[in-house]
Write a structure and sequence with these properties.
This protein has about 270 residues and is of the alpha/beta class. The protein has 8 helices and 9 strands. Helix 6 links the parallel strand 7 and strand 8. The chain is globular, with a radius of gyration of 18 Å. The termini are far apart.
């Protein structure tokens, strides 16, 4: 069998075995997925880094501002897995692109997933540099990573998709670090184009507080897999029509560090 054929057949369990061979078999209970401009937090992990290229089915380096590596090690007192980037729907049109990586995390023993992203603010009192804990989300794109799943497990309840217990723990960590943590509803647009001012007015009317191009598919997949999940947005810009700033991906990457330092403090406190 060729190497390419062998790689194509790798299951989550086989990928987990490959990771164990590099990182050891000590339990990994928590995982963190990093958003645009936040990939540098991979370096905070004391342990090993595995390039996605060595893990068939993990996302390629398709978006600048991501670090295409899986880090396994410790932050604070917690052993965890950190994904330095994700694949977005807008890259190849696959809303289930992160299914295999998340299934692999579950095979490693992960039960708790924390997602991060860069997002645009719809609230004047939540400027760039702010952090927003997701209380809920709006799947404005209408896409779903479970389309095609043949079992009844696809009918995933989403009433409390964002774990109340994990959100409370994140709020407590932010309070201890004296970091203001806003809380609100995140709306998912497919991207890659940014939203129009009319679209922003529409989702503000529907109750959204921030907007972005990721995270919601992973929340759905995490609940499908039985993982406890919470998510935090780093606000990098005001959404279209909310200010006169020039919105771009370069702007997102430039502004992400404003909130990333706060996010690192909150996560380190939680993991400690």
């Amino acid at each position: 069998m060729s190497k390419s054929a062998e790689n194509a057949l790798l299951t989550p369990e086989a990928l987990a075995a490959r990771i164990h061979a590099v990182a050891g078999i000590a339990p990994v209970g928590t995982a963190l997925v990093l958003g645009s401009g936040l990939g540098g937090m991979v370096e905070a992990v004391e342990g090993v880094q595995i390039p996605y290229a060595d893990l068939p089915g993990f996302p390629h380096a398709g978006v600048s501002g991501h670090s295409p590596k899986l880090a396994i090690g410790t932050i604070g007192a917690t052993r965890l897995a950190v994904l330095g980037g994700r694949e977005h729907y807008y890259e190849r049109g696959n809303p289930a692109a992160m299914r295999l990586p998340l299934e692999t995390l579950k095979a490693l023993g992960v039960t708790r997933l924390i997602l991060t992203n860069a997002a645009g603010s719809l609230q004047p009192d939540m400027p760039p540099g702010s952090l927003m804990l997701l209380s809920d989300h709006i799947n404005f794109s209408g896409l779903n990573p479970l389309i095609g799943e043949p079992t009844d497990a696809r009918f995933v309840p989403m009433t409390a998709a964002h774990s109340p217990a994990l959100r409370a723990a994140l709020r407590a960590a932010a309070t201890q670090e004296q970091v203001e943590l806003h809380e609100g509803v995140y709306a998912w647009y497919s991207g890659p184009s940014f939203e129009t001012p009319a679209e922003i007015r529409a989702i503000r009317t529907l109750g959204a507080d921030a907007v972005g191009m990721s995270t919601v598919p992973e929340v759905i997949l995490a609940r499908f897999l039985g993982l406890e999940v919470a998510a935090i947005s780093v606000i990098t810009n005001m959404a279209a029509g909310m200010s006169d700033e020039n919105i771009s991906h370069e702007h997102t990457k430039a502004m992400a560090p404003l909130g990333a330092a706060k996010l690192a403090r909150v996560l380190t406190r939680l993991l400690a």
